[in-house]
Amino acid sequence: MQDVVNAPRLYCGFAAIRESADAVTHLITTLGPKGSDDLGMILPHEHVFVDLRTWDQPGYGQADPADVIRLMTPYIDAVKSAGITAIVEPGPIGVGRRADILLAVSQATDFPLVAPTGVYREPWLPPWVHDAAEDALCDWMIGELTGEIEGTGVQAGWIKVGATDTGMTRVEQKVLRAAARASVATGATIGSHTVRGEVARAQLDLIESTGGDARRFVWIHAHTEPDVAIHHELARRGAWLEYDGIGEPADDARFIDLIRRGLDAGFGEQLLISMDRGWYDPAKPGGGVPRPFTYLPETFLPQLAAAGIEDATIRMLTRRNPFVAFAR
Ligand SMILES: [Zn+2]
Predict the structure, then answer these.
(1) 139 C-alpha vs ligand 1 centroid, how far in Å?
(2) What's the order of all strands across the beta sheet hosting 41-43?
(3) Residue 202, Cβ density class (10 Å: 0-12 exposed, 13-18 middle, ≥19 buried)
(4) φ/ψ (deg, to 5) at 135
(5) b/e per residue, 66-93, with b = 16+ CB within 10 A?
(6) How far apart are the first and last CA of the chain?
(7) pLDDT by residue (tens digit) across 180-223?
(8) How far is the CA of 266 from the centre of ligand 1 (A)?
(9) pTM confidence score
(10) How far is the CA of 21 from the centre of ligand 1 (A)?
(11) Around ion ligand 1, which residues have CB less than 5 A away?
(12) How far does the centroid of ligand 1 lie from the alpha carbon of residue 223, in Å?
């Protein structure tokens, strides 16, 4: 079990936070809380630092922050120039989370990132996650959401989890129950790496049966489920649909179609769009060659406009939605 640096101000089981409709919310970033007036376009799913090896591999998650700054600064400068004002970073425990590195990159580039608490899916889960009781996981998440991550001074903005493609394992179910309770206690959103609709449906069932709120659930990688009826079924229950595989010209028509169908079905205020790109990879020499963050603002959005999507709708998709999804 990792140390909880600050004693949580809230505790697992606390269920008194209910936002009123006009509550002022903030996106909790590496550079502090940001209100909607502080921000413009936000990318809800891009990576700065990821290690997809498992925790037991030599060198896992290790890098000199100066090297990450050197590699990633041009990519962040470019996306800033393209009008993006913040990125939600979706790398939790299990894929080499380094909040200290995210903070260093943010400070070097004056660019806010939204760091997660939470853990990825099997087989990336370290032994302490297997061993931890649900209550302890919940308290750990609340500690990071209300205090800081591993003594870095970085407060977690949201909760990232994952599910095995064919269905949640027992440990993944334990993690999601803990996440649902931490979400209720803090108002934080849960986002899950989930590729199949029936698995996302089971996750939403579990969240609701634990007292959680579907409107605080982001189905990450929803576009990988070919049955759009399931997308809309879960959106009808309140969940966010994240179409985050944008970036290949050959796929643009499909993403424009998914967005249009979501809008036509009345779920425009629950759609998120991103590229799932980046990143510094410690498994590769020099961190490898990141994929740039600029395709969506520079190439995809003009195509969306050319396809007849109104400016006000594009503003909703790129500004309002990612803020509302992850702010609390
Ligand atoms: Zn990702």
Answers:
(1) 25
(2) 41-43, 84-88, 113-114
(3) middle
(4) -60, -40
(5) eebbebbeebbeebeebebbbbbbbbbb
(6) 27
(7) 999 999 999 999 999 999 999 999 999 999 999 999 999 999 99
(8) 26
(9) 0.94
(10) 31
(11) 90, 276
(12) 13
